[in-house]
Amino acid sequence: MASLRLSPLEWSDLRRALGLYFTSTFLRSNYMLLMLACWVVAAAVTLWNIHTLLRHETLAQALSHTNIFNAILVIMVAQSVLQLHANNQIGGSQAPSIPGLALAEARAASIVAGVTILGFAGLTSLLPVPFHDALFFVLFNAIPYAVHWYAPPREQSGKKRVTILFFGIALMAGQFALLLVSDAAYWMLTRPAVLTIPASIILFIGLIGSILSLPNRLHDSKSLSPSAHEQPLPVESTRSGPVGPSAQKPLTPYQLRQMLLAPTAPVTFRTDILISLILIPVFLSVFAMIEVFLSHRSFSAAWVKSVGTGCVMLVIGDKWLLDRQHWPLLLVTGRFGSRLKFVQAVFKAKLSRMLIVTPIRVLSLVVPYAFLKPLFPADAFYDALDLIVLAVGMTLCSALPFLLLRSPAKSIVFAFNLAPVLLIQLCSPFLLSLRHAAYLAITALILGLLSYVFAPYRISRSDWPYENE
Amino acid sequence: MNIRKDVLPVQVTDLTKRFGSFTALDGVSFTVKPGETVALLGRNGAGKSTLIGCLMGFLVPDQGSVDLFGQNVLDLPRDLRARTGFVPQTMTGFGAFTVGKLIDYIGAFYGTLPPIDPALLRWADLDPKKIVKSLSGGQRQRLAILLAMRHEPDFLVLDEPVASLDPHARRDFMNLLGDYARRTGASVLISSHILSDLERLCSRLLFLRQGQLVLDVPTTVFRATTRWLDHATPHILSDLPFQIIGQRETGFLVHGWSEDVILPEGTTISVPDFEDAFLEITATRTA
What we know:
Largest interface: A-B, 49 and 54 residues
Shape of chain B: elongated
CATH superfamily of the largest domain in chain B: P-loop containing nucleotide triphosphate hydrolases
Order of helices and strands of chain A: HHHHHHHHHHHHHHHHHHHHHH
Oligomer: heterodimer
Number of strands of chain A: 0
Strand content of chain A: under 5%
CATH class of the largest domain in chain B: Alpha Beta
Structural class of chain B: alpha/beta
Largest sheet of chain B: 6 strands, mixed
Strand order of the largest sheet of chain B: 6-7-8-3-9-10
């Protein structure tokens, strides 16, 4: 970790790095800022609602009537904004050679992160809740970023790295599991000071320490490993056989179609079906068990309460319109024909996959839900139908910016790509009446189909990313 | 900290770097003296970029050490780091800055600097108001070079710096680099596949093959003592003070040739083209 005593030169570095946060450079470099702005508004509205409800309700009641998840998300998005900004500088190919740059960026990020955390805790304490509880709440929900920021020092042994890695994963899993338990926010906001103050100090030091470890990334640069640009050449005289296709299993047509959608690892049809079938029930059962343990609610009640999370899993997937770096490479293969045909192939691949996996995921969510709630089969059928239409429609709506704008900014595409994850909870039949949910689902489907039909024409006549950045 | 003139800018000792089971560098040792301009030559995958990564302290050696200005590069203090400059193969990052803002921002990390060399500024020919993200690949490379040379480093490392430059910009840059080295007395280490540039600019040649330094020779000596000896048998040549560094159907490429050595009758001598010599020296063979 960097020393806290700064020389005059380091002070001046820090001032310059901090100054960047108040310039157009910060705004330009950060496609997450639009998301942050949206979530700041959502979080402010949520906190104001809780504040209003607290006039005639207890904190537990007020929290159960609002979506505190918005406030938690704003903490996470704010950390993503800071990470993106710092990485824009530290990730540069010349950054390791510039004396003091990485340290200055890390120090500036740690100060901004600290101020953000304290500011948001101050805002949360206006509910009113004790400041120490608000701070604990904010810091606890910043745990994933404390883990993400951390970069191990180069001299650290492999064993220690693995231990820290597992510790980080355990922390994140714990935070994530707790986050999905419906009473978690109440639990965090009502802990005694004797617990929250020491815990907050540890969490705060952990977060700042992790950010200050950022310069270690310079010695872990992927661009310097031989896989990036220095592959060993085959030895001339060891040609025991012709250079041919590798021994790896060839991709199935289903996987090849998925390649259009920029997945991290395209899976086979069978695996995709299997994952879709078990993903939601397994996750929701785990969350329900945690909730049973923490709140002494029955398993079925806990399962039913977490269907909102299940809805999110209906639309979690690839960054099909956000990550388009691979498009030019695939286009020039000629496999898909013209630019328009190519974009239409992307949309078709997305829709066909949605039509295969969404019904399976919806059934895996609605069948146990109907059984545990319990629900009449006809009602369950309408809920399922509504969810399928909603998920498919909203996913296709990700292309709306291309319909409305010639070259939408990355931040807008990013926001629309993430929007289904957030909106599907708010528009689901589990939260709204079936009639209202149905109106929204049909609207989403109409807009989605409009995007499906017309957006490819617009995208095929716009610039595609073909160089870095 | 003042740089002692008697301290070597670069001292590489028994440098080994592995990535998993692949050995990228295998026991490489060499030094660079003040004012030397050294070319790093080798095929793709020979270990050039890995060597540069180790030299700049971006990669940690598995064995051996790299000293810059007498200090281990892994513990290089800030004032010595500020005496180095690095040009990567391609410039990434800093996309949201304007060119002018980035030059000022990066320059400030080096402390108070003199005005930028007008010749360098003229050559770079960049609009200070343009956003880095909007620059072409070649313009970005010019910016990377400007950023690396702006503070007039004593040791400048360039990793294939001209690959994305147009022929005019490339030729002018090589002249600029030569002038810079002469004017400041800086040491320069450059890796490139444009052999004619390296032959013209560099005073010393380092040939890497499969992670090993197979030849380390001043350019003038290389020119004077590298010859094709055709119609000679290897057992005769092995008795002579030559190093066989390549071969073809009719003979051998040797280093260390001089007019004083008496060769067997029938042996024909010819001067190799620099590119042919490179191809022979860096060719990958098994025993």
